[in-house]
Write a structure and sequence with these properties.
Strands 6-5-4-3-7 form a five-stranded antiparallel β-sheet, sandwiched between helices. It has a two-stranded parallel sheet with strand order 1-2. A hairpin with a 2-residue loop joins strand 4 and strand 5. Helix content is 57%, strand content 10%. The protein is of the alpha+beta class.
């Protein structure tokens, strides 16, 4: 479940740059090669360019430059994305019964036109940003949303629901579905998810699916791949350490947990990790 060596090198370089410089769709394609090892990235990149071209074409010619020209208004941008991606090309959320591994693969999304909400969010963000439209992912509980904005105007859209605008009542319905009937919206539910975090969300969906299938060695590979582009993510090192422990890979477990301790600023896991490390070091004596 690891990408080829040259892809790993690219992901490692991505791990050294700021999150806002990460090319989301390209990186998602690199990650997908771990599942689709024999597929080339180039045809998918051409398809993404075609999507951007078609959305720009739906908007029409750019207006003449002017001091007050900020491009198409918010509603026009959202409608162009909806009409081209959701309606013309048929991009939508994968059925509940779909294989989570396939739903979380960016290549499989493009092949089948169905995928996880996080993969769909990456697709919409890529097209919007390619047209210089400000757009961010919103880390809504159990559901990645997309926010578009123009000067003085912003709105939230659901990539998993035909990129329809989310009114407050829609967001309340989603939060109650995710967290229970007593849950209410708070400002924390509108937190922006940066590019690295969104890619991690995609990878963690793959990891969770593998753990549910008890494919522990593959799950380790997914975490190790995620650590290439997110090497400072302490929780990933802790998860890697626990999985290596479960698989009796003691030296690897020690290395991962020691890295977690170096990165961890102090939480409830620090003491328990120290105890586990002491036990693991004892096994090597």
């Amino acid at each position: 479940m690891k990408p080829a060596a040259h892809i790993q090198d690219r992901l490692r370089r991505i791990g050294t740059i700021p999150s806002d410089q990460i090319r989301l769709a390209d990186t998602a394609l690199f990650l997908a090669t771990a599942i689709d090892k024999n597929k080339r990235v180039a045809p998918y990149i051409r398809h993404l360019k075609k999507l951007c071209f078609d959305v720009a074409g739906y908007i029409g010619p750019a207006p003449m430059p002017g001091n007050d020209n900020h491009g198409p208004d918010l509603g026009t941008r959202a409608e162009a994305l909806r009409q081209v991606l959701a309606k013309r090309y048929g991009y939508g959320v994968a059925p509940a019964a779909a294989d989570p591994l396939e739903a979380s693969s960016f290549m499989r999304l493009i092949d089948s036109r169905f995928g996880a909400d996080s993969a769909l969010a990456i697709l919409y963000l890529h097209v919007a940003r390619s047209l210089d439209w400000p757009a961010v992912a919103i880390d809504f509980p159990h559901h990645v949303l997309v926010r578009l904005e123009t000067p003085g105007e912003r709105a939230i859209y659901d990539p998993a629901n035909g990129f329809k605008a989310c009114a407050p009542q829609d967001l309340r319905r989603l939060i109650k579905k995710a967290l229970g009937k007593q849950a209410e919206l708070t400002p924390a539910h509108y937190a922006v998810m940066d590019s690295r975090a969104l890619l991690l969300c995609l990878q963690m969906e793959v990891k969770t699916a593998l753990l549910e299938q008890e494919r522990f060695f593959d799950a380790i590979d997914v975490i190790d791949t995620a650590l290439l582009f997110a090497p400072l993510e302490a929780v990933l090192w802790r998860e890697a350490g626990h999985l290596h422990t479960r698989l009796d890979n003691v030296p690897a477990a020690i290395d991962a947990l020691e890295t977690f301790q170096r990165l961890n600023n102090g939480d409830e896991h620090r003491y328990r990790t120290s105890v586990l490390l002491q036990e693991l070091r004892g096994r090597l004596q």
